[in-house]
Amino acid sequence: AKGGKILVLPGDHIGPEVVAEALKVLDIIEEHNGVKFEREFDLCGGCSLDKHGIASTEEVLQKSVEADAVFFGSAGGPEWGHKLPNPESGLLRVRQKMQIFANLRPCYFASQSLIERSPIKEELIKGVNFMLIRENCGGAYFGKKVENEDYGLDPWEYTRSEIERVARVAGALAMQTDPPTPVTSVDKANVLANSRVWRKIVTQVFEKEFPKVKLQHQLADSLAMLFITQPTRWNGIILTDNTFGDILSDESGGLTGSLGLLPSASLAGAPGGQTGQNSVGGARGLYEPVHGSAPDISGKGLANPVAQVLSLAMMLRYSFNMYHEAEVVEKAVEKVLDAKDIGGLGLRSGDLGGKAGTKEMSEAIQSEVKKLLKA
Ligand code: NAD
Ligand code: IPM
Ligand code: MN
């Protein structure tokens, strides 16, 4: 393995708490493999606003495109509010600068022992496993906004090329399995013009380039309901726009029992699978949990580090082709969650009904990683 360059942006509140723990897992892998990553730390979010008056500086944006991967915590908090420039705008600037237009947000049980934690009945939720691909650089999030005392406008627009490139990621990912994984494209084509264009272009891309992939379309509002009543019906790939993807991926946290479990990877092309590089943009990627900065529990050592640790696994897999190490990290997380309560320590954080803190969970994961690497 040859390592690479990682820009670490821990952000605000629990961001730095869980990023620090995830990086200890990386330390262990480095030590074991003799591989060395160049790590640079910088500010993004409220911490950057406080110091520079802007949530991500030009320098950070520049560094983010020069790194092989950006490892991101979370940005935001009540002390900064939502008025622009807000902490969240720092993250959006990084996403746009990197043009990492495909945000992969998997939803599955990191351990079967978590099924009973889900608010959904076991017979419905068991086996849920989908990869939600959220368009990450367009839609209502970007474009020319207008905002004053009496009026607000977010142009929710998509161009052909923006839709084609993210549809191709879904298609390429679908073709990595045999038989190809079915794809559900999610929109509001019954109301929104940009959704009608989305549906048409997605259909064209699949007909032309991925004829073997089964593509279906689903309206976003009904999917939000059917996620709960028939969650496993969507197993496979879900392809959707920025806003719907944001909302539905938090719902994934509800399905699996906690937001503290869900990682994400944002890429500039399809992941190459076991054999190759990303189809576009080399290894470029940004890795962050689906959850936010959780100001309600920050500073107390209570945050669940799993989502951040699993984001590290995604980084190893997609940006550095370290498939074995990625699996080791995932397996270690699974083991710790399986154990539930080894030695009366309650190795589960509060969001999972346990009494363990960030440190205890992280240390348990680290020790499993060490064991698995040696095995
Ligand atoms: P949130 O995801 O921060 O928290 C929602 C709930 O989930 C809270 O009760 C929180 O305690 C819990 N939670 C989240 N992560 C957890 C973890 N790792 N362990 C245990 N519990 C966890 O959402 P919110 O409260 O709506 O947002 C707080 C701030 O975070 C806002 O400013 C928002 O904009 C920002 N945010 C940032 C990102 C990001 O930087 N990627 C993502 C989402 C939200
Ligand atoms: C997420 C977050 C971000 C988003 C915010 C913090 C900008 O909610 O990553 O899901 O809406 O994309
Ligand atoms: Mn979100």
UniProtKB/TrEMBL annotation:
Keywords: Amino-acid biosynthesis, Branched-chain amino acid biosynthesis, Leucine biosynthesis, Magnesium, Manganese, Metal-binding, NAD, Oxidoreductase
Annotated Isopropylmalate dehydrogenase-like domain residues: 5-365
Top-rank taxon, per record: Eukaryota
EC top class named in words: oxidoreductase
An example Gene Ontology biological process: L-leucine biosynthetic process
Cofactor, free-text remark: Binds 1 Mg(2+) or Mn(2+) ion per subunit.
A Pfam family per the record: Iso_dh
Keyword Glycosyltransferase set for record: no
Gene Ontology MF: a single term: magnesium ion binding
EC number: 1.1.1.85
GO cellular component: cytosol
Needed cofactors: Mg(2+); Mn(2+)
Pathway terms, separated by semicolons: Amino-acid biosynthesis; L-leucine biosynthesis; L-leucine from 3-methyl-2-oxobutanoate: step 3/4
Reaction catalyzed: (2R,3S)-3-isopropylmalate + NAD(+) = 4-methyl-2-oxopentanoate + CO2 + NADH
InterPro entries: IsoCit/isopropylmalate_DH_CS (IPR019818), IsoPropMal-DH-like_dom (IPR024084), Isopropylmalate_DH (IPR004429)
Role this protein plays: Catalyzes the oxidation of 3-carboxy-2-hydroxy-4-methylpentanoate (3-isopropylmalate) to 3-carboxy-4-methyl-2-oxopentanoate. The product decarboxylates to 4-methyl-2 oxopentanoate.
Family: Belongs to the isocitrate and isopropylmalate dehydrogenases family.
Self-association state and partner proteins as the record states: Homodimer.
Protein name in the entry: 3-isopropylmalate dehydrogenase
Organism expressing this protein natively: Cladosporium halotolerans
